[in-house]
Amino acid sequence: MENEENLQIATIKRLGDVELKNSALLDEVDGLKVKKVLAVNTITNINSKEPLDSSLKISGDIEYNFILQLENDEVVSTTIKQDYLLNYENKSIGSGSNLDVVVSSSEATVENIDVSSTTIFTIYENCINSSLSMAKSPENVFVKEEEFSYHSLLLCKSYDAVANFELIKDNKFNKILYVVNNASIKSVMPSSGYFVVAYEICSTVIYKTEDGDLKCTTINNSFSNEFEANGIDKEDIVQARIITCESVVNESEDRFSVEVPIKLDACIYQKKTLPCIMDAYCLENEIKLTSTTCEKDEFLPVSCAVENILTNYSLDESLNPIEKVLAVVPKNIRVVSQIVKDGEVLIDGIASVCVIYYYENEDGERIIDCSNIDIPYSLTFGAGNVTSDDKVGINISFGDINVKSRHGRELEFLIELKINYNVVKPQISYLTNDITLGESKEEKDYAMEIYIAKENETLWDIAKKLNVKISDIMGQNKDLTLPIKSGDKIVAFRRVTN
């Protein structure tokens, strides 16, 4: 029999992780030897992803943003970029696969002046199940329909934009050395032909004062951008994540202008509904309904939460005691494990920061030093109507970081975490995909039939049992009221041909 056109049902599946190891060596800047790497932050950019048969090629570059102390004790900043090419093998990947690649962790470690980095990529596949179809009703068959809803993938696309903010140059901001940015989405508003993303950038700015002192401050700025998306409508769902790239600092006579490039990865899903045949009968023939199991995902809009880590950390005895904290540089946040419960998500992970400080040597000289610190965390955040069966994708970024030094070796951290999460609700439905006419029914040899309705029976149930049209029941039982009640007497008249 002829079927409706195939359904384009969207689902998302995590394929796995792949690790990239890289290294960088910076031994001099402007002809001066590097004495110490005080801090390094990595940004892993994905420039292209090419699905092939059973593999995925990922290419891009890694930015290493350094704060260095040179042999003349001057503190400077510089950036190195290195290209990479990575191959991820998976038999389920085909040349036409729609794949989403997420940098789930990117961190650098320093030993002397040697820097090594580890980046973890997580691979997702946006699947389209186009093999499912709905049955159409043949002639002379009465059908009972219910609405079948599903999400269809409109597009997955990366967008580029630039956010700008300014700092007034004065005796405080005399020279900016280093800017680390963390972005988080506050809301996504779909509209006709475009969507608007409101987001926040938390910038850690390390600078020198007019007196040459090294200091640090955190600046929060809110932005919004409009992104074009042909075919999108205000009822559609946008799941997105945002990352920042290397900042560009421009200096004029009276101010610093900071350009922060951002990359937004967005997947847009459209909700569609179709009538699905749930039951059917024919007056002349027996019929057979064939159903198939349908796995589908319901996609929810990107959501946000804010949580804090409050913890103490003891400095290793081998390190010099802290006289004064100069700067705290955010490095990386890893999610080690997560548990989804009804209405909440539990996360365990590690937040990595670098503390730059000075200590006084025996001669009373101030010496700049640093310590890379891994802070374990465990937190729970409320997640609305999430259930334990849902798939939750989490993206965490740093907000404000405050640290207090106590007795030279005890550090008290208060770290704000901005959490964006995408929720996907897996569902299983059943679709009637075929109706087959069978043998002819035996014609009943009586002209009238009286039926007593049972509890919870509907007019459809009774018409199917009596093998008559619903319209005939209503026409022949003028006093019948709906809904049907238990004990209602229903009369069916037939034309007997014998």
Radius of gyration: 32 Å
β-strand number: 23
Overall shape: elongated
Structural class: mainly beta
Tell me about the biggest sheet? 4 strands, antiparallel
Overall pLDDT level: 91
Structure characterization notes:
The longest helix has 8 residues. The protein has two helices and 23 strands. The mean pLDDT is 91. By secondary structure, the chain is mainly beta. The protein is 3% helix and 70% strand. β17 and β18 form a beta hairpin.
Topology of helices and strands:
Layout: E1 9-25, E2 28-29, E3 32-52, E4 55-70, E5 75-89, E6 99-111, E7 114-129, E8 141-168, E9 175-190, E10 194-208, E11 214-228, E12 237-244, E13 248-251, E14 255-282, E15 285-299, E16 303-314, E17 324-341, E18 344-360, E19 366-382, E20 391-406, E21 410-440, E22 448-452, H1 459-466, H2 470-476, E23 489-493
Antiparallel strand pairs: 1-7, 2-3, 3-4, 4-5, 6-7, 8-14, 9-10, 10-11, 12-14, 13-14, 15-21, 16-21, 17-18, 18-19, 20-21, 22-23
List the keywords.
2 domains; single chain; 2 helices; 498 residues; Membrane-bound Lytic Murein Transglycosylase D, Chain A; mainly beta; four-stranded antiparallel beta sheet
